[in-house]
Amino acid sequence: MLDFVLARGEAISRSTRVSVCQSSDGATCTADGWASGRIVFVDATTAGSVEAGDVILRVSSATASGDLMTTPNGASFVSYNSAGVSNTNLTITTCKTGYSGAKVIIYPTGRIRKDSSGLCA
User: CB count, 10 Å around CB of 53?
Assistant: First the structure.
């Protein structure tokens, strides 16, 4: 959830597009699933792709083995524009070994909400 909050805040404060994408290598967008890791970056060129001129703001490592992050619509990146509005409506369900599940919900308005309703306890 922190990756998306950071991206939205940076997009607003920098007045430019900032994206979060799936990344297993911490350098490129790999579309290997949200659990593989994530990159938050200033997305100055092609939306959802780290290219020359883009600035990486944060790299998040993969989740622990057995922990899951799934999304029904298959979106591999989320972008926020300078007003903090996102390019998609996305729900990511997380299931961490030994804990109850949660959903991170990203609305098209850019609003981010966590629902800790015990989905996979």
Answer: 9
DSSP 25: S
Which of residues 71 and 36 earns the better pLDDT score?
Answer: 36
Q: Is position 120 within any domain? A: no
CB 79 within 8 A of CB 48: yes
Counting Cα atoms < 13 Å in the Cβ hemisphere of 107 gives 5
Q: Give the per-residue pLDDT at 13.
A: 98
CATH number at residue 86: 3.55.40.10
pLDDT digits (tens, 9 = 90+) for 46-68: 999 999 999 999 999 998 777 78
Asked if residue 63 belongs to a domain, the reply is yes
Helices and strands in the chain, H and E counts: 1, 8
Q: Could you tell me which residue, 96 or 24, shows the higher pLDDT?
A: 24
Return all residues near 112 (Cβ < 8 A) that are at least 6 apart. Answer: 1, 4, 5, 8, 104, 105, 106
